[in-house]
Amino acid sequence: MGTHEAISICLGALGFITSLATLLLAIKTLRADHERRKKQATIEYANDIRDLWQERRVAIESGIGRKIEANSKSLTEKEVETIKNSPELRDAVRELLARLEHLSVGINTCVFDKNLLYRMSGSYLIRVYAFMEPYITSVRPNSNFAYIELECMIKDFMDQKRANPDPRTVGDMNFS
């Protein structure tokens, strides 16, 4: 083998290694961008739901005749019936639960970032679900799968909370 052939082989190998390194860097960059967009979408959707809850909470409080606080007890049977018998109230509750269900589908299918949502709003969502659970249970006889994705997400959040009460230590925040 001549000197030119050896140089040619070395340059070819160097070109291959450079191309491979560039490809790996591009993959890492694309993955980081995907994770960043996933986190951004999670933040935006969670904020939309928080705003919707604030609006609907006023209607629900007015309809059931009591304030909903952070430590409020769940809906009573009477309050559930009040919601079911009031078209405006029923629509407000359904819209809120439908949006929470959509968020839950995104979380359960990894479209949204579960750990980020838990860190941002896990306790808050657990409280909202606990408050609404009697209504959800009341509609289940008509639809066995009503709000099932929400229930699954909340159970996961409750398990996380039991296992590790400090949400700051949950999840992998790489690519943030």
Task: Present the secondary structure layout.
Layout: H1 3-64, H2 77-85, H3 87-108, H4 114-139, H5 148-163
Helix pairs in contact: 1-3, 1-4, 2-3, 3-5, 4-5
Largest sheet: none
The chain-level mean pLDDT equals 90
Radius of gyration: 25 Å
Tertiary shape = elongated
Note the beta-strand portion: under 5%
Structural class given helices, strands, pairing? Answer: mainly alpha
The total beta strand count reads 0
Report helical residue fraction.
Answer: over 70%
Total tally of structural domains: 1
Distance between the termini: 51 Å
The helix tally amounts to 5
Would you write up a description of this structure?
Helix 1 (3-64) runs parallel beside helix 4 (114-139). The protein has helices at residues 3-64, 77-85, 87-108, 114-139, 148-163. The protein is built from five helices and no strands. It starts with a helix and ends in a 13-residue tail after the last helix. The protein has one domain. The mean pLDDT is 90. The chain has 176 residues and is an all-alpha fold.
Keywords:
5 helices, elongated, mainly alpha, 176 residues
Quickly describe the structure.
By secondary structure, the chain is an all-alpha fold. Helix content is 77%, strand content 0%. The chain has one domain (35-169).
